[in-house]
Design brief:
With 289 residues, this protein is mainly β. Helices cover 9% and strands 38% of the residues.
Amino acid sequence: MRTLRRISGGRVLGTALATVVLATMAASAGETSAGKAAGLNCAADATVAGGAPDPSLLAREASKGIRAIWCERYDALGRATRLGPYREFYPNGGLRVRGQYVDSQLAGPIVLLHEDGTVFMRGFLDEGEWTGAFEIFHESGAVWFEAEFEAGKLQGPLRTRYRDGALESETQYQRGREDGLARSFFPTAAGGRLKSEAQVEANRIVGRHRLLDRNGELVRSIDRSAGPPSWRRPVSEPAVAGFLVDGDAPSQTNRAPATATDPSRHRAAGPAAPAANPSTTDEKSPVRD
């Protein structure tokens, strides 16, 4: 404490300020130790820093109790630039996120883990945008959600699968807008047959919307082209058939990030539960799974 009580010019630190300095030093030492323990190899001119998780990856409400560490480099004016490895940890010390910083922005492969260490989500960020393959997994390790991104926009087929690998739903995207045939299927235990199908154009169901029972018999057929012009799917609710309908999605609190469900905003953003396809929630088949 004697050393802390003297600074330039012989000025004396007050007791409260000295306590803050001691706490800061202890926290810094703790972050450095945590960084080493986590295999955080910072550049020679960088230091380990820690604090709240990066909000650009997951929403704050999904990160309560989570702590992050990363590497920082300071310029002559004391401005920090994040670079190199980025890690997030659960309250129990288990690793939650493994990523990388480039010029203070998360970039490259991103892996999100369950508390037991199994992979929950995997994707790739390029200048803040999801690019390439994007996957979410069941606790068993089986794929639940699979899609492709191009510069932050969903592109091509988007599928979800049951725990046994059987197809749960599929739809198509073009430049971030749902466009194509959207279908959902009963689980294997219920026969695995087609459950519903609808044609989607620019996020809107058009033409006939068919609902079937588990035996493949038509239950209802709705002509959407004759429906009220005001009926339109919100852009934030893609018509991925079967989402959250059969209760077979991963139970991870973080769920899917908003980038996987919001075609208008496919950036590295906070989580949001995928919306259900109106084909499975608007007029459901009376035969439940």
